[in-house]
Structure formats: structure tokens, C-alpha cells
Design a protein that fits this description.
Elements lengths: L1 H21 L5 E11 L2 H8 L2 H4 L11 E5 L2 E4 L2 E8 L3 E8 L4 E9 L6 E11 L4 H6 L3 H22 L1
Antiparallel strand pairs: 1-7, 2-3, 3-4, 4-5, 5-6, 6-7
Length: 163
């Protein structure tokens, strides 16, 4: 009985320590990548303002597991994507995973219609709960999302500059 109490007490203390350490991590994670594209902003906006344009430059959008229900809604594997706002310089989307985790994606275009050089910035923002496993798992967001974002932004650059 004494051994069981020791194990129980140790588990509670360990959980409290891991939770306290996890609370030292930020509650919001931002992953951002940018690329310079030699093209006017209008020609880039045509490819980023709806899901059908994404099919041309986002890797994996042509898979059979991707179900596009409208220009603003798609199911990418286990993630629901909804474009919520489009302006002349930004596109905002909400990405919701099957486990309920939500990320806000933004594609921002910096430059004007007369300039030949446009900076395209893509970012994902996620609000984290207090759970220690969620805080520790967020450390991998930059490696996982960042690599995918860089590759897709380079695809967009090649596609736009080839025109």
C-alpha cells in the first residue's frame, strides 16, 4: 500500500512539474515564411484568392483525398479549410483539424499593382490550450509547417514568374 501511494504521489508531482514547465511556453504559435516574386500583386492574387487557384501551386491539392466543395471550402485529408476573407492584399483562412485544433492562415501580398516586385508572406497562427502535451508538440510546428510553406511558396513563385 505504501508503494502504491508513493507511485501515485510521484505521478501527481511529475504531472504538476511538466504542466508548470509547459506554461512557460507561449500560448500562441506563429509560423511565417515569405518569398519575393517578380510579378505584380494582381497576378499573384488570382492564384491565392480561392481554393481552385491553390490547386496549381499547393503540393498535394490534386490528391483524391482532397474534396473541394466550393471556391472557399475544402477538406484536405483530415483538415477542413475555409477561406474567410479576401481583400486586394490578403487572404485569410481557417484550418480545423479533426481533433478540433484550429489554425488561422494568412497570405499577405506586399507591393502595389504598378510594382514588378511583390513580397508574398504566408503565416499560420495557433492559439494553444494549457495542456502540456499541446505546448510541447507546438515546438515542431515550425519544422513541419515551415518546410511545407517554403516549398509551396517556391511553387507559387515558379508558376507566376513562368507566365
Amino acid at each position: 500500500m505504501r508503494f502504491i501511494k508513493l507511485i501515485g504521489f510521484s505521478v501527481v508531482i511529475l504531472f504538476a512539474l511538466v504542466t508548470a514547465l509547459g506554461l512557460l511556453f507561449p500560448s500562441q504559435v506563429l509560423v511565417s515564411r515569405a518569398v519575393d516574386i517578380t510579378a505584380p500583386k494582381d497576378s499573384i492574387l488570382l492564384l491565392v484568392k480561392d481554393i481552385y487557384g491553390w490547386k496549381k501551386w499547393v503540393e498535394g491539392m490534386n490528391n483524391q483525398s482532397v474534396l473541394i466543395s466550393s471556391p472557399t471550402k475544402a477538406l484536405l485529408g483530415k483538415t477542413d479549410v475555409t477561406i474567410t476573407r479576401v481583400s486586394d492584399s490578403s487572404v485569410t483562412s481557417v484550418w480545423v483539424g479533426r481533433n478540433g485544433n484550429q489554425q488561422i492562415g494568412s497570405i499577405n501580398l506586399f507591393g502595389d499593382s504598378t510594382r514588378v516586385q511583390t513580397v508574398v508572406q504566408w503565416e499560420f497562427r495557433q492559439q494553444l490550450k494549457w495542456y502540456p502535451w499541446e505546448r510541447f508538440a507546438s515546438m515542431m510546428n515550425d519544422k513541419i509547417l515551415g518546410t511545407m510553406m517554403e516549398k509551396n511558396l517556391n511553387n507559387l513563385k515558379l508558376l507566376v514568374e513562368k507566365r
